[in-house]
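ESCALATION

Customer reports they have been waiting on this structure for their group meeting. Please prioritize. Original submission:
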Amino acid sequence: MRRSLTAALAVTTLVTPLVLVAAAGSASAAPVPPRTPLVDFNHDGYADLVFSAVGGYEGTTPGQVTVVYGSASGPVTAHAKTFGRATPGVPGDPESGGRFGQETAAADLDGDRYTDLVVSGYDGKAVVLWGSAAGLSGQGSAELPWNGGHVTAGDFNGDGKRDLVTVDFPRSGDPNNDDQGMLISYGPFTREGKAASTQAVATSRAFGPGGFVTGDITGDGADDIVSNHGFEEMAYASRFWAGGKDGVNTTPKPLAASVGGAIADVDKDGYGDLIVRDIGNNFEGMPYQKGTILIKYGTADGPSTTRTAKITQDTAGVPGVGEEGDEFGSSISAGDVNGDGYADVAVGILGEDIESVADAGSTVLLKGSRTGLTGTGAQAFQQSTTGVPGASEKEDKFGSQVLLSDTNKDGKADLTATAPLEDGTYADSGAAWHLRGAAGGLTVTGITSFGPKALGALEKGVMFGSWLAR
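Update from on-call: job pushed to the front of the queue and completed.
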């Protein structure tokens, strides 16, 4: 937008991390509310944060991930720890432009109650860093049997053990067969990185998945998968793949083309609702879009085809005005910020103009309610908001990544937002902001902000906050 936003003080929290339900129910049974396990590497009950700093695509940095542990006072920057290919115990060698940390996924893969971290990049096979009472360590890290690429965690057979879905699809060996698809690796994993079993699912002959959104939409206690697809500039229909006690159903349901998103119960009916960025049919047009959030409410059969909604910056109650290039929905995360039991949704707007400052970036919090997700009571925050450290500057892209998680264990999700192009001592070093959840929503009281220098990590051109583990 090209006028200043009015900032309010309330946002919603991430779904309170709870233990996954072990048994899947039937479609006729009462729905099992979707649960999001806590990202907790040292199992102390506080949500931990992982920031990727991958540099540009033509950059000279090898990439790194930095863990900031949660506490009663929120993120503790003094005890942050950074990992890369050069960390003792981490397989592989650092490579310029290797983008280690391009994507990450957090999940307790070996069932020891400590969250583990999967890290992928362009520099070889993905690796898993194991959690422990002392947190993450490079020692004992294992390679996973697939090269870096899209990876997302879930529990796709509802057995209470965490699984992974990737774009690594086994080839048939036939040179005339160019099938593509996804590979589901079911937990528990061994410390050597071997899954208990795998399931290869062909998604299309012409194009494979470009990313995944996971969570329990059908209320049966097993997570489902929404995959998005495209080829060159064209975006194709996303697909819904139902999870269940026997694994992922290989017959998908088509959905509107989308990118990114979250699954959470915004109306507290027990079914997970699908919240995604609606992108039309052309990937190349995304940087020029105002941006639209599409909500498909959950049912026992998957995302509803009749109960749907769209929200933009022009929706009543949403701060700002939708303008070309805003990209409302460039990042999406869900959680219960005010503790009322309804999941709320944080929305990144990386191309938002603040006054005359182009692409400074912003975030908006949309609140869940009995009637679903609306613009009522929505809040906006950016670097020009009173109480938020820093200043809105050209192409900071504040809100490039957003995450709702309870880092201080008060039952209310807090907002972490990043600006990978924020300038510190060097250009594009990146930074993060952490706003606390409260009964009234997000608040700037107790807000913190930090970049890689404050965490003892590499700083020059690293684009800290390019990705947030979830």
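Sent to customer with the following note: The longest strand covers residues 137-147.
Escalation resolved.
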